[in-house]
Every structure is written in C-alpha cells, then in structure tokens.
Amino acid sequence: MITLTINGLQVSVEDGSTILEAAKFFGFPIPTLCYMEGLSPYGACRLCVVEIGEGARAKLVTSCTHPVEEGMVVRTASTRVLRARKMILELLLASCPQSKIIQDLASEHQIRQQRFKQEHEDCIMCGLCVRMCEEQMMAKAIGFRGRGENRSLGTPFDIKSDVCRLCGGCIYVCPACQLRCTYNEPDKAICGACANLTPPCVDKDKFDDMMCYMKPCVACEIRED
Hints:
- The chain is α+β, with helices and mostly antiparallel strands.
- It has three domains: 2-120 and 184-192, Ubiquitin-like (UB roll); 128-173, Alpha-Beta Plaits; 193-225, no CATH class.
- 21% of the residues lie in helices and 12% in strands.
- The protein has five helices and seven strands, in the order ββαβββαααββα.
- It has helices at 19-25, 79-95, 100-108, 128-136, 169-173; strands at residues 2-6, 9-13, 49-52, 59-62, 73-75, 143-145, 152-154.
- The strands form two sheets. It has a five-stranded mixed beta sheet, sandwiched between helices. The chain has a two-stranded antiparallel sheet with strand order 6-7.
- β3 and β4 (59-62) form a beta hairpin.
- The longest helix has 17 residues, at 79-95.
- It is globular, with a radius of gyration of 20 Å.
- The N and C termini lie far apart (54 Å).
- Mean pLDDT is 81; it is low at 194-213.
C-alpha cells in the first residue's frame, strides 16, 4: 500500500494506482474529458491536472497518468490548479463551443464569458474514440494522423474502413458529439443549464444544506427559444 496526502487527508491506496483513481476513491472530484474507466489513460485534455509537492518544487501533473508515490502531497483544487483548469476549459470551449459537456464544465468552474475566438472544430483530440475502437471494440478502424497542428483523426488514407462495424462506440464517448444548440456569440456561448439557474425544487431559506437530488435536474430541461 502507498500512503499519500490528498487535500490534507492522509490516505492509503494500492501500489500502481493513479492520482485520479485515488482521488475518486476518496471522493475528491477531478474533472476530465479524455479519461474513461476501462480505457487506457491518455492525458490529452489536461483538464485533470493537480498540484503535487510543496513550495517552489510544486508542479502540475495530469492525475490520470501520474502514479501515486509514497509520501506524495496532492492538491486537487489549489489556486494554481483552478487557474490552469479555467484556461484549459476556455480553450476547449473555443474549439467546440456547442459541446454540452464542455459547456457544463465551464459553467461549474464559474466561467461566464468566452475570451478566445471560436474555431468550431469537430474534435478536441481527446483520443477517447481511438481507444474505444481499439481496446473495447477490437477493431482499430480509426486512429491519429500527422503531428502538431496538422494532427487529425480518421481512417488510414481517408479510405472507408473494412473493419468498422458501425457500432457507434466512437460517437457514444465523444465529448464533441454531445452537442447543445446555443448561441455563437462569445458572451452567450455558455449555457450553464442548472448551474446558472435557481433550483425550482429547493427552498434555500429552509434547507441551506440541501442539494437537489433529481437527475436530471428539472432546471436542466428549461431552455430558451
């Protein structure tokens, strides 16, 4: 067993665990877009960054790929971490402004306005679809091509794949495919859903420690025309 400290709490986890797995096990929320249980960790979205170490030697690492170490000190929501996550979310929102998942994450992190130019890309290069196709569907029908800004995703040589079974697994896991119809202006790009609305089912004056237990939340179903 490995003993480490997460947000001031000393915990013990199995050797070989990642920081993300340890944090999730003990109830510390860490947002992520490219991680999915059952698929190999990839660390592409960088949203799961946490701060490890103390003082001048503290650094940011991706929690989904970084293994726990004996005596490690982890902070999942320090000022430095939250600042990095907000910047990452703003960049992701500029790439895929109509992604429901990215919009909701942005709203949860108190992002109310998009500062960067909207690109309306159809992919954030999280690699979920590639790993799903290879590791769960055993097909390898799609993959990454090129490097840097020329990196893209698709079938080899853009030829229709003979091994694709049209299972839809790639679409199921894709954050960019789960769209929400919304405005395209930067100051209206974030819907926020129930994160920005007063819960209609909770009287806060009487139940100040009560959270809405409905899933999906009734407020999430409210949309403006």
